Amino acid sequence: MPARRPFARLLPACFAILLLAGCAGQAVREPAPLRGAALDREVERLMQAAHVPGLALAVIEDGRVVHLKAYGARDLEQRLPLTTDTVMYGASITKGQFAYAVMSLVESGRLDLDRPIAQYLPKPLPEYEKYADLAGDERWRKLTPRMLLSHTPGFANFRFFTPEGGYDPNGKLRFHFEPGTRYAYSGEGINLMQFVIEVGLGIDVAELMQRQVYDRFGMTRTSLVWREDFAANLAIGYDPQNKPLGHKKRGAVRAAGSMDTSIADQAAFLAGLARGEGLSAASKAELLRPQIAIDSVQQFPTLLTDATQDNRGIALSAALGWLTYREPQGQAWAKGGHDDGTNNLALCVADGRRCMVILSNSSNAEGLFKYLADATLGPTCLPWFWNGYIPYDHPEWREPAARAQPHPACAPLPRP
Fold it and tell me: Which domains does the chain have, with CATH numbers?
């Protein structure tokens, strides 16, 4: 490993003391979050440095949107500006909002988080064509909604991914570990939860999301499938070299990530979640509480078993559809979204009193997430290395060797 990273082995004791009490009893003055023109300048500076064509940002304080702005272009070739109503691909932030909608079914008594899914389905899961690969493995009977929503079913992210993170177009769905025993991010699990709701409960997930989320929060530019009225103000995705990738017009509902949306809509949802609207206090607490501790070195590839204690100090855990952890500001929860030409992040800290959400049309935007989180919310313990949010000016952390010595949570970000 590069010589400039020896501190990565020194973390546990002093960081815990520094964060929670202050080393040697000395208070640490934290820089104030940026707002107004100062925040605009910082966003624009970072976008230029990291070659991000378009980025939209919202900041929420005490359940109220205090900053809502779009920066850069939605279409470089046509020189069209990104706006707060521009439709962008939401990717996996869909999962967090799906989990919110699922909790409404739990609250109404339609669904029990700990009841095996076998009790909801009219026939055994392997008898459905989509899940025929599980025939002969009775572990599917152990699966519960809690396991599916907390990414502990034992599946790969998607069946066509190998354990090493490669692509196998002929991959079959199978269990890679005993359900409920450890965390491994799984879009397959989320989509199976959708299947259980639709087939077992007879509830259309698109209608559920429309009623419980989009209509509730006035999200008029959001849908789980493509709508033709989106075309007039649509973001084009860009690869790391700013080559245009277009925008996929998704025609099938996928709870794991088919949502198109706008920054204005995402700000409305996150502000509503922070206020606790639409769910009882108990249901919101269950949605966001730690379900299982996470000790993996990085989130992807999902099935690698390399472990670390670097995130133990912040109690990094899976919630239901969300990630959660603790920091000096209080409990934090987050949900990211990633695809070619799309990087997004919703993050709340201080027990939900301060939040931000980022939507981008760039494969480069994740390199800004740690800096933007600190700029908008104050210094945070966002586990950027675990998430793969490698800062744009630290490319060496993308090298495979970095996995052998991961960056500790809440460690000062090393300067290049």
Answer: 6-110+203-404 (3.40.710.10)
